[in-house]
């Protein structure tokens, strides 16, 4: 089933100049990038985005990291995009992510684990809406 997922290249990916290498993997796999832009999260947006982690031991570090620099956000489209992209990015903790996955190949620690991708249809819809207006997403 053709579907859309939301992907963010986190501040460490931009700082380390990995944007091209990561996008290349999605294009090589056969996905279409139907929306993309550069953003910088402010504290309010980061807190809204990571609401579920409020109160956790790593929350402050996570918010500081996510607001530390610019990011790339995109909408990736293709067959089973949500589950396939999650597989391609690898486990949340890069030390446990398999080699061959994006986190397995490019990261070693959290919260600076390079990339985020939606983990369900509901979160994909929510996250795409949070970052893109309808007319910023292109079908053709
Ligand atoms: N134990 C931890 N210590 C530090 N940072 C963490 C830890 N666990 C998660 N994080 C950070 O919070 C983010 C969100 O965690 P979550 O458990 O939702 O994982 P995820 O769904 O793989 O991540 P993301 O939402 O970024 O794709 C992680 O990607 C990572 O940057």
CATH architecture call:
2-Layer Sandwich
Q: What fold name stands as the CATH topology? A: Alpha-Beta Plaits
Q: Enumerate the distinct ligands.
A: adenosine-5'-triphosphate
Instruction: Tell me what portion of residues adopts beta-strand conformation.
Output: 15-25%
Strand element count: 4
Bin the helical content.
Answer: 40-55%
Poorly predicted runs are: none
Give, in order, the helices and strands. EHHEHHEHHEH
CATH top-level class: Alpha Beta
Classified in CATH, the superfamily is: Nucleoside diphosphate kinase-like domain
Shape: globular
Topology, please?
Elements: E1 2-9, H1 11-15, H2 19-29, E2 32-39, H3 43-49, H4 59-66, E3 71-79, H5 81-89, H6 102-106, E4 115-117, H7 121-131
Antiparallel strand pairs: 1-3, 1-4, 2-3
Task: Describe it.
The protein has seven helices and four strands. With 140 residues, it is α+β, with helices and mostly antiparallel strands. The chain has one domain (2-134): 2-Layer Sandwich (Alpha-Beta Plaits). It has a four-stranded antiparallel β-sheet, with helices on both faces. The radius of gyration is 14 Å and the shape is globular. The model has no long low-confidence stretch (mean pLDDT 97). The chain binds adenosine-5'-triphosphate (ATP). Adenosine-5'-triphosphate binds at residues 58, 61-62, 92, 110-111, 113, 116-117, 119. Adenosine-5'-triphosphate binds next to helix 4 and strand 4. GO terms for molecular function: ATP binding; metal ion binding; nucleoside diphosphate kinase activity. It holds the Pfam family NDK. Its cofactor is Mg(2+).
